[in-house]
Write a structure and sequence with these properties.
alpha/beta, 7 helices, 8 strands, elongated
Amino acid sequence: MSTVTALLTNKAYGYPARGARRRRKPTILACLHQTANAKATAIQERNYANRAGSSEPSATAYIDRDGTIVRAIDPAKYAAWSQGDVAHPNTKLPTIAAAVASGVNMNEWVHESIECSGAGTEPYTDAQFESVAHLVATAHKATGLPINRSTVVVHADINSMSRRSDPWPPATREARVKRVITRAKALLRPPIVTVKVKAGDTLNEIAAAHGLTLKALLAFPENAKYRPEPGLIHPGDIVRVK
């Protein structure tokens, strides 16, 4: 996965007017899209939004089918102009219901507006799913918002009249959004660290060497087998320490 920074320069984005900075903190981590132009690459989509005189919708990031991210807008400063009008909003999602009730344009409620480029039998590709998940995880770090179905939405949740299959048909939508959410959460989990027991090691010594109490060491699910007899370990045993 690689990222190309190609920020828009023509101010063809933002709410309430083109180029305007955000006026409120977002409450939606990301709105996911699939470009309507089947042949366009991510950089071509960015360039189209950046053409002279453009007032076209713009995403904060475009993603190619190989997973390359083209960063077009700094979401901390600007709101992308790509969610469109709220035609038939999915008000079962609390964040969307609150946005509609507020009367504030939906664009300003969204941190990342992510548009995947290219066409295939199954939007997105595996590489695009991975890049989207990374952007959602990064958005969580930047905003502190949780990662769930109310903070990861799709265009069809907002404008279901004209884009009801964007980016996935209703029959597959929830499974695909769940895939993004699950992967983004996995990316945020700290890696599991283990050690191999050597002759003469004790669990108390292993715990202390890694800044843990024995109780904390045994709390890891992977170490459950040692709980009945913490003093009984053998060379070659694997113990989780982080």
